[in-house]
Design a protein that fits this description.
The chain is α/β, with parallel strands linked by helices. It is about 25% helix and about 30% strand. It folds into two domains: about 5-115 and about 240-320, 3-Layer(bba) Sandwich (FAD/NAD(P)-binding domain); about 120-240, 3-Layer(bba) Sandwich (FAD/NAD(P)-binding domain), CATH 3.50.50. Helix 1 (about 15-25) runs parallel beside helix 2 (about 60-75) and helix 4 (about 155-170) runs parallel beside helix 5 (about 185-190). Bound molecules: NADP nicotinamide-adenine-dinucleotide phosphate.
Length: about 325
């Protein structure tokens, strides 16, 4: 890769959507580069276990992300670890500027930047991040072996991570703001059957407190009675959903009220040749299999678009 390199396709983001797009693009013989600012694999790399990716009854999130990466690399997909600074749509081609100053150009771009965990926004959360506040049980759970932790949230992620933490910790409190969980039935049943997990219903965390050893307690408020209390804990794991990483989405691409990119069924945005795939894209189900399916769709559509674009420019040159 050099400054002003030209590709058929640039993929931004190396999670399941981006890597699957890479597999399909390489198989379609498109000259392709995938740019990922962190480690390839995406959010799934931080999941303890995955039990609903077809073909895998059980696989750790890290293993699945490595399998996806290795699969893409088996087709010699170049994966470049760099941060993207700007994506500039153009009439002839699109450009992707990297933080190191390199400028890449391509006929088509697939946006697969995924999402990031939402924050509670309570006092102590930012201050004690890494000192007891975490957004990844697989990454940080080990530090809480034999200890007490609080898990905030009532969705699939919170339940999966609470179950993971229950294997390590002495006690796990799930703090949920309503009287019913959002998580799938099967995860709810497992949580209710785990004696180390206690669900604190209709409860929110209003502050995270720490002493010299890190997080030591949370302030809780009952959402129905407004009663407050303090609960001693060694750690706080926040799993309250995520927001799309849309900061790099160019102007002119439609997003819904929640910031997800709106596309047609080919994953194409309002700008021809720019596609969105995975958790960044507006959709019904935010699952790994759907992200992978998006990556496939976007790459196949991009291949068709590029083929037509090249054919048109060949015809123009012949008639010039
Ligand atoms: P989610 O489904 O949006 O759940 C977020 C949870 O956090 C909800 O229970 C919500 O409460 C609660 N919450 C939101 N904001 C809050 C706040 N400010 N304070 C306290 N609680 C708050 O998010 P997720 O669990 O990360 O899942 C995201 C998507 O990924 C979902 O579609 C999920 O099915 C999928 N996922 C699937 C799997 C799997 O199938 N293996 C695993 C993980 C995630 P309310 O319920 O009251 O809104």
């Amino acid at each position: 890769m050099s400054d002003n390199s030209f590709y058929d396709l640039i993929i931004v983001g190396g999670g399941p959507a981006g890597l699957t797009a890479g597999i399909y693009a390489m198989r379609a013989a498109l000259s392709t580069v995938l740019i990922e600012k962190g480690l390839a694999g995406g959010q799934v790399a931080n999941s303890d276990s995955v039990e609903n990716y077809p073909g895998f009854e059980y696989v750790t999130g890290f293993d699945l992300s490595q399998k996806l990466l290795n699969h893409a690399k088996s087709y010699d997909l170049p994966v470049v670890q760099q941060e993207v600074a700007e994506i500039q749509p153009g009439l002839k081609h699109h450009s992707v500027r990297l933080s190191n100053g390199d400028n890449l150009n391509a006929h088509a771009v697939i946006l697969a930047m995924g999402g990031s965990p939402l924050k509670l926004g309570v006092p102590g959360e930012d201050k004690y991040y890494g000192k007891g506040v975490s957004y990844c049980a697989t990454c940080d759970g080990f530090f809480f072996k034999g200890k007490t932790v609080v898990v905030v949230g009532g969705g699939d992620t919170a339940m999966e991570e609470a179950l993971y933490l229950a294997k390590l910790c002495k006690q796990v409190y799930v703090v949920h703001r309503r009287d019913a969980l959002r998580a799938s039935r099967i995860l709810q049943q497992r949580v209710f059957g785990e004696c180390k997990i206690e669900v604190l219903w209709n409860t929110v965390v209003t502050e995270i407190k720490a002493d010299e050893g890190g997080v030591c307690a949370v302030h809780l408020r009952d959402t129905q009675t407004a009663a407050t209390r303090e609960l001693a804990t060694d750690g706080v794991f926040v799993f309250i959903g995520f927001s799309p990483n849309n900061a790099l989405v160019p102007a002119g691409i439609a997003m819904n009220a929640d910031g997800y990119v709106v596309t047609d069924e080919k994953c194409e945005t309002k700008i021809p040749g720019i596609y969105a795939a995975g958790d960044l894209r507006q959709k019904y189900a935010r699952q790994i299999v759907v992200a992978a399916a998006d990556g496939c769709t976007a790459a196949l559509a991009a291949a068709h678009y590029i083929e037509e674009k090249k054919a048109t420019s060949d015809t123009c040159q012949l008639t010039d």
